[in-house]
Amino acid sequence: MTPDPPPAARVGIETHGVDTIPEADRTGRPRDVAGILLGSNMCLGVVIFGWLPASFGLSFWPAVTSMIAGTLFGTLLVAPLALVSLKTGTNLSTSSGGTFGVRGRLIGSVIGLLLSLGYAALTVWTGGAAVVGPLHRLFGLPDDGLSHSVTYAALAVLSVLVAIFGYQLMTRMSKWVAVGTVVLMAAGLFAYGDQFRTGPVTDAGYLLGDFWTTWALSTVAAGLSGPMAFITLLGDYSRYVSPRRYSSRKVFAATCAGMLLGLLIPQLFGTFTAFAARAADDYVGPLVAAAPLWFLLPLLLNGVFGTIGNAGVLIYSMGLDLDAIVPPLSRVKATILTSVLSTVLVFLGYFVWDAQDAVTAFVLLLTAIGTPWAVITLIGFVRCRGLYDPDALQVYNRRARGGIYWYTGGWNLRAAAAWLTGSAVGLLSVDTALYKGPLLELTGGIDLSFLLAAAATAATYLLLCIGSPQPMPRQPDVRVAASV
Questions:
Q1: Do 430 and 368 touch, CB atoms closer than 8 A?
Q2: What is the chain's mean pLDDT, rounded?
Q3: Transmembrane residues, as ranges (predicted)?
């Protein structure tokens, strides 16, 4: 019989960084993991990905099928990463030191930092537009650069406060945000229902010239990119779940459910409203313009609370990754610093970059380099049968040397070489409006960067590991190992 977990901790500023969470503090439950994944994604920063297929020139049903296919496939591949931190009790980039080496795991920290940085900026950017737009229509607030700048700054400050308080506050907040946003989206079906049409919203035709290559682009950029955004984030939540109380199966099921619902619900709402508002070159502007007056207040509330919920989770993860890269920094200081960086990106997104091109290029390029890291981390998890030495994983954070994950100067050169190989293949086969890889000629113009990067990485790493066993602790914790 599963023992009852200890009482939930009170909300306060989280004291843990990337250190190993003590068993007494691992009070999380699988449903808490699902709750954070569901609640934190109920914002326009995720909704906007549902607009991308429409902006690519697809009609409604192909847009829907591309997102569902990509999200399902990505979830099944990414969700097992939550089990790594379930076993190690620390975040995923630090956990990857078991495979990449205690210094080589910096690859994961940098990837996680970039992913969270970009998505946090996107969330605040779209959320700010969802605040200024309704206020402009309701009260005549000027829809200009000053209004957006003040709104961005306010949302950034609120988001960083959520991130500083950390896990307990995010767990509680995500539940309310999830419920409120589901109600908002249900109301949105009525608000935009009479304007909805399934035909393409743009007269320019398919973005890549024909249906299947554009559909494939949508599958990766709008569908697969959602789960891939969590390749380094899942461990931030599952590390608080005790493997002595909950099985890997329950955590995996909760992670899958949270990712699928948390991504598909807002993205499909984004697709529906994009076709209703006929949003071609921009999403939030036409969304606000097409909204009936009564729907502006719910939209405004989501612009505030949905944004700080999602951006808070992402900034929290950024703080952990920077803390892992620069151990002398405390988690709070690292969180504040990364929030400043994301806010700078927000202003660049508003004043400098083109929305569609910037978002698409960002998700595709980071997917190309993030996929190889995730593949290697999962292979390492399978090879060691989920058995890790938590103390040895913390060697770099203590600015020490040695341990079973030291490899060669703290780097597993086999893992690093496989990651470089897979990343190179991915970048050479990616297709964006800003950059097209030369391998596209071999794939008929279809962006298969994710599949090619994953296959090249797995083949390279498995070949390099022939005759080289995965380091495993000499005396594993039997109680933890029993649940693998």
A1: yes
A2: 84
A3: 33-54, 60-86, 106-130, 150-169, 176-192, 212-231, 251-275, 295-320, 332-353, 359-382, 403-428, 448-466
Looking at the DSSP assignment, which residues form a beta bridge with residue 411?
408
Alpha helices in 140-196 (DSSP H): 145-165, 167-192
Report the distance separating Cα 228 and Cα 375, nearest Å. 11
Residues 6+ apart with CB under 8 A from 103: 97, 396, 409, 410, 411
CB 67, CB 264: distance < 8 Å: yes
Question: Do the beta carbons of residue 245 and residue 162 sit within 8 Å?
Answer: no
The Cα angle at residue 440 between residues 217 and 48, in degrees rounded to 5: 20
Q: What are phi and psi of 144, to 5 degrees?
A: -130, -175
What is d(CA 186, CA 184) in angstroms, rounded to the nearest whole number?
5
Q: Which of residues 274 and 316 earns the better pLDDT score?
A: 274
Whether 6 has a pLDDT exceeding 60, the answer reads no
Cα–Cα distance, 426 to 430 (Å, whole number) = 6
What pLDDT does residue 405 have?
94
Helices 81-88, 248-277: axis angle to 10 degrees equals: 140
How far apart CA 394 and CA 94 sit, in angstroms, is 8
Has residue 103 got a pLDDT over 90?
A: yes
Q: How far apart are CA 328 and CA 398, in angstroms?
A: 9
* Contact status, residue 439 vs residue 425, Cβ threshold 8 Å: yes
3-class DSSP assignment, residue 431:
strand
Residue type, 436: K
Q: How far apart are CA 477 and CA 203, in angstroms?
A: 62
Asked if 174 and 34 count as a contact pair (C-beta separation under 8 A), the reply is: no
In this prediction, residues 196-218 reach a mean pLDDT of 88
Amino acid at 24: A
Q: Is 411 helix (H, G, I), strand (E, B) or coil?
A: strand
Assess contact for 360 and 221: CB atoms under 8 A.
yes
What residues does 28 pair with on adjacent strands? 241
Token pair of 304, please?
């505030």
Give the pair of three-digit tokens for residue 64: 């829907």
**CA proximity to 237, closest of 35, 7, 67:** 35
Q: Which CATH number fits domain 23-353: 1.10.4160.10, 3.40.50.300, 3.40.50.150, 2.60.40.10?
A: 1.10.4160.10
168-182, 202-216, 223-237, 453-467, range with the lowest pLDDT: 168-182
pLDDT over 50 (residue 482):
no
pLDDT of residue 17: 64
